[in-house]
Design goal:
single chain; 507 residues; alpha/beta; UDP-N-acetylmuramoyl-L-alanine:D-glutamate ligase; Protein-Tyrosine Phosphatase, Chain A; ten-stranded mixed β-sheet; six-stranded mixed β-sheet
Length: 507
């Protein structure tokens, strides 16, 4: 059947495309993806781009397309993965596998290219089952949790590299030291960032899991805290429990001893779970890896204890207590994988972080900070880190909410978090995988901030910015010498930074 016939076939199709899971892909590709043609619809996203780079490294012939150009799509192009702008059923005609991401299937469950692939008998999957397929045969190490996944994954990967274990690492954002969101390796360990939304992480069956934090998130998908907790527990129940696996550690879960949600999740496994549980803590409970004597200010430092032994005081480049928690989580996991304590300590001190994780740039008499924070808890932590790092300076917090339902569910917590800044600018909502049905507007968040105790007497300090150019113009008006211009959100909100600075390019 040629693509013209396929186009006629799918004209009357309005049913969602059937998506293959990891088990289906394992049956379809028993010998792996070497030499197979993989096409990606919506290729320019954070996670899917990483999966495509690793499929290319595994010998697949990879192409992609996207609705608009993105920086990650450009990265794929530069890596030899051609990315077409726009969609065409002809893209899938010679593919052995078509992959996509939840943003595409949630908005367009009957997307024409995906329907064309299905009509041709080509498997269609989210990119996560592809990544799970690529992890097959390795010692899988997944970093999961509502907060800190990316930074912890990247730092753990750096520790394993420094220990000469040559891991493969997949991260949801660009690691500065690699200038990429992946690091292909020849060793047996495969580290990945495991996302809970849409049960994405059920595509992975790791030997080791690091669980950073469990609390309520993704209200557009999970109805209650118990639902998201149970999703994490289901993920843990799917770990690789093969007895006496060759060259592999025992099944191991590393959890935050400070997190009630982590402890609650572990409790769902039952007391007879046969693996190893290791813990980490920041000035809290007794744990296998601990940070104590924490100092957070112009510099962030702590004393690291590993299995009761002090490794001395470590100064890390990433500011804030939350980044100390990420470091101690990575230390506990690296230790379980056999990394020497001195390598762990040295790597923490040298780690330069990810892009968009408290990324600082000077601009004359002000400082810009670009951060991925998009949950109320993360927004509060990021503002607190800015207060500590830049004591006594005015914090101008610019925030772009992602998803209408998310803002509606977390309106008060977002307002409370943002009200810890001195000035607040709200950018128009990033729709992501939703459509605007009028349930909420960015002005609703502005009014909620203005109702907070610190803003009742200065309501003019919370403003609606509008789109990126409008927000940038407002920030130019607001800036004063000494300001810390903090820009937060999971979408491309950092585009306001070069616009506000009068630069022609985008970050």
């Amino acid at each position: 059947m040629d693509t013209a016939d396929v186009a006629k076939t799918i004209e009357t199709q309005e049913q969602p495309v059937r998506l293959a899971d990891r088990a289906t892909l394992e049956r379809a590709f028993p010998d792996g993806v070497r030499g197979k043609r993989i096409h990606a619809v919506g290729a320019g996203g954070h996670g899917i781009s990483a999966g495509l780079l690793l499929a290319q490294a595994a010998g697949a012939i990879v192409t992609g397309c996207d609705r608009t150009p993105t920086s990650l799509g450009l990265m794929l192009d530069e890596a030899g993965i051609p990315i077409a702008i726009g969609h065409d059923n002809a893209h899938v005609a010679s593919a052995d596998l078509v992959v996509t991401n939840p943003a595409v299937t949630f908005l367009h469950p009957d997307h024409a290219e995906l329907a064309a692939a299905q009509a041709l008998g080509i498997p269609v999957a989210q990119w996560q089952p592809l990544l799970g397929l690529l992890m097959r045969g390795s010692v899988g190490v997944s970093v999961a949790g509502v907060h800190g996944k990316g930074s912890t994954t990247a730092l753990l990967g750096a520790m394993l590299i420094a220990a000469k274990l040559d891991p493969t690492v997949e991260v949801g954002d660009i690691v500065r030291a690699w200038d990429s969101n992946v690091r292909p390796g020849a060793g047996r360990i495969f580290v990945n960032e495991a996302d809970e939304f849409n049960y994405n992480f059920l595509s992975y069956h790791p030997r080791v899991v690091t669980l950073t934090e469990v609390e309520y998130d993704h209200p557009e998908f999970f109805r209650t805290y118990e639902e998201i907790r149970d999703a994490f527990a289901q993920f843990l129940k799917g770990m690789d429990m093969t007895p006496d696996a060759e060259d592999a550690p025992p099944p191991t879960i590393v959890i935050s001893a400070d997190s009630p949600g982590c402890r609650d999740t572990i409790a769902q496994l039952g007391a007879d779970w046969p693996g190893v549980i290791r813990t980490f803590s920041v000035e809290g409970s007794q744990a296998d890896a601990m940070a104590r004597k924490v100092r957070v200010g112009e510099q962030t430092s702590f004393e690291l204890l590993l299995d009761g032994h002090s490794l001395g005081r470590i100064t890390q480049r990433m500011p804030g207590r939350h980044n100390i928690a990420n470091a101690v989580a990575a230390a506990a996991t690296a230790s379980a994988l056999g990394v020497a304590p001195e390598v762990i300590a040295q790597t923490i001190g040298a780690f330069d972080g990810l892009r968009r994780r408290f990324e600082i740039s000077d601009d004359g008499d002000v400082v810009w900070v670009d951060d991925y924070a998009h949950h109320p808890h993360a927004v509060a932590l990021t503002i607190a880190a800015a207060r500590q790092r830049f004591a006594g300076r005015r914090i101008v917090a610019t925030f772009q909410p992602t998803l209408y339902t998310r803002l509606q569910s977390f309106l008060t917590p977002f307002a409370e978090a943002l009200a810890t800044a001195d000035e607040v600018v709200v950018v128009e909502i990033q729709p992501s995988r939703e459509r605007d049905t009028g349930i909420i507007h960015g002005n609703d968040l502005v009014r909620a901030v203005q109702a907070q105790p610190g803003f009742v007497h200065k309501p003019q300090a919370a403003r609606y910015g509008g789109d990126f150019p409008q927000t940038a113009a407002l920030l130019r008006e607001l800036r004063q010498p000494g300001d810390v211009m903090l820009v937060m959100g999971s979408g491309p909100v950092n585009q306001v930074i070069p616009l506000a600075r009068g630069e022609t390019g985008q970050s």
